[in-house]
From TrEMBL:
Pfam families: EamA
Transcription regulation found in the keyword field: no
Protein name: EamA family transporter
Transmembrane segments: 28-47, 59-80, 92-109, 116-133, 145-163, 175-193, 208-226, 238-259, 265-282
Keyword annotations: Membrane, Transmembrane, Transmembrane helix
Domain EamA: 3-132
Superkingdom per UniProt: Bacteria
Organism for this UniProt entry: Stenotrophomonas capsici
Length: 286
């Protein structure tokens, strides 16, 4: 189970780094760019994916390109959500994205619905309402945090749906991640060079270092989650539930105790409903 704990810790640490970035004067877009350089190199060296599977005519290049655009896009949205809504609510919204991806699995991928999963979906929708409710904290003066939370919710669901499309085409997940990370880095680097030469935002070594650290932790989240499934191959529901509930709970503790984030009664009810919803959905996969 230590792989699962490490994966949960890395996931929350990503949110912590995004929370701290503005305070350190870090350009988020640059950091996210270098994050994908680190993730690409580590994927190549550690996971050692085979690229031969991408040479066939059935490679879902459209879905891979979609991932390459969606992954950095949702990273930027998550950074804004963490800044405006806090780690507590952002991590819950991120984990509840499984509601949309599960619905897509029912509609497009032929997954069977059952009472547990449907109950989890219902509770999850209520949790989204509670978590997205404005908490009256002064750190969200515009009251627009709910929009960024919904963006996190929808964005991570889109990424999961695209990954399902890639898997359905028979492309190994490690190969798909490497290609998506690589294309994402190239696209983001082109954007940063444009910003640099137009004077919008000069490239800075601090952003490079911060981005490489972000990428290492982001990759750690993926690696340890994969290792957890490999260590407990007959307990996928346990890993699924442990990962999602662990991130929600640890994110709440870090957000409240370390950063002093304030939550309303509705937010706290939404958090509890999120935990219950994830547990019901996991129960439905047994």
């Amino acid at each position: 189970m230590h792989f699962l704990f490490l994966s949960v810790a890395c996931s929350v640490l990503v949110s912590v780094l995004l929370k701290l970035a503005p305070r350190r004067g870090i350009d988020i877009a640059q950091a996210v760019t270098w994050n994908y350089l680190a993730a690409s190199v580590l994927s190549l060296l550690v996971l050692k994916p085979s690229l031969q599977s991408l040479q066939g005519g059935h490679t879902p290049w459209l879905a891979l390109l979609g991932l390459a655009v969606a992954l950095p896009g949702i990273f930027l949205v998550l950074a804004r959500a963490v800044r405006q809504a806090g780690i507590v609510r952002s991590d819950v919204a991120q984990r509840l994205s499984l509601l949309l991806s599960l619905t897509a699995a029912f509609v497009w991928f032929g997954e069977q619905a059952n009472g547990w999963k449907l109950a989890g979906l219902a509770l999850g929708l209520l949790a989204i309402v509670g978590v997205s409710a404005r908490n009256g904290d002064a750190t969200t003066p515009t009251g627009s945090s709910w929009g960024w939370l919904l963006g996190v919710w929808a964005g991570f669901a889109l990424v999961d749906i695209l990954l399902k499309q890639v898997a359905a085409a028979g492309t190994p997940s490690t190969s798909a991640l490497l290609v998506s990370f690589g294309i994402a880095f190239v696209l983001m680097l082109a954007w940063q060079l444009q910003r640099h030469f137009t004077g919008a935002s000069r490239l800075d070594a601090r952003n490079l270092a911060y981005g490489l650290l972000l990428g290492a932790i982001n990759f750690g989240n993926i690696l340890f989650y994969v290792r957890a499934h490999q260590a407990l191959p007959h307990s996928p529901a346990t890993i699924f539930a442990g990962m999602n509930i662990g991130v929600v709970c640890l994110g709440a503790l870090v957000g409240v105790w370390v950063f002093g984030e304030k939550t309303s009664v509705l937010n706290r009810v939404g958090l509890l409903l999120a935990v219950a919803a994830i547990g019901l959905i996991a129960r439905g996969t047994l």
